[in-house]
Amino acid sequence: MTIKEVEKLTGLSRSNVRFYEKEKLIVPVRNERNGYRDYSNSDIENLKKIAYLRTLGISIEDIRSIISENVSLREVIQKQNKILRGQISELNRAKKLCEKMLDEETIEYSDLKVEQYVAELEKYWSDNKPVFKLDSVSFLYIWGSFVTWTIITVVCLLIALLFYTKLPPKIPVQWSDGAVSSLVDKKFIFAYPIACIVIRYFVRPIIYGKLQMNFYCEVMTEYLTIYMCFLALSVELFSILFIYGIVKNIIAMLVVDTVVLIGVLIRGLAKKNSGTMEV
Predict the structure, then answer these.
(1) Coil, strand, or helix at residue 36?
(2) Residue 137 belongs to what H/E stretch?
(3) Residue of 50, 74, 51, 75 whose CA lies nearest to 64
(4) Which residue in 148, 225, 251, 260 has the most C-beta neighbors within 10 A?
(5) Strand 37-38 vs strand 29-30: parallel, antiparallel, or unpaired?
(6) How many Cα atoms occupy the beta-carbon half-sphere of 218 within 13 Å?
(7) pLDDT, tens only, 108-158
């Protein structure tokens, strides 16, 4: 079967099917005559199973473990059921408190008394630790925000536009022991802002898929995405500075970049730990 037939039979989009292929959850054979993927009935059934398990919140890694028989389906379902029970319990508790507040004739922030709704305040804070942890990693959210990515990408593009006419016909893209080991056409300078776009819209979803079901999955995905874009900007700047003889060693620059960005991560995680309420 073709990918179009698979879409029709499963109800899944082409991008979903391709993603599960990339994750090696299904491995369709290649048609020897035309080289196209040839999906079997078994592939169709597996896609349905994979998609169904994903709707239950089961991670790609767990599904891979099930398929490879490293763990049984029952074990994974039991684990997920426990997770869902905890989430339902938390949602029901929040729902009851909202209903209790709405039972009041008037409800204003200025008159809100938390102790009126929460008998054991210390225990309540303890039960809601994940909320406070999420709030306290806002520093990483600032670093990993769409605005930060936009700024880096725009700066990459502006640098390319400003220096393009001043660059020699060939520019360095690889270095060895402080010397150029590979040259390309100067148009390559525009590859850096393009790389930022590719990282954001193509690499980022892959990273997110790898990290899913982790509590800090989203913020770590954003952090790593911005980190790679920042490296692209750094290499672009280094190329220009190298051409003008201002700097010579790219390794030193990359080490500095790494130290700075690890520092950002450590600061964010430290903020998370110190920002979590002590109970």
Answers:
(1) coil
(2) none
(3) 50
(4) 225
(5) antiparallel
(6) 7
(7) 888 888 888 888 888 888 887 766 655 555 555 556 677 788 999 999 999
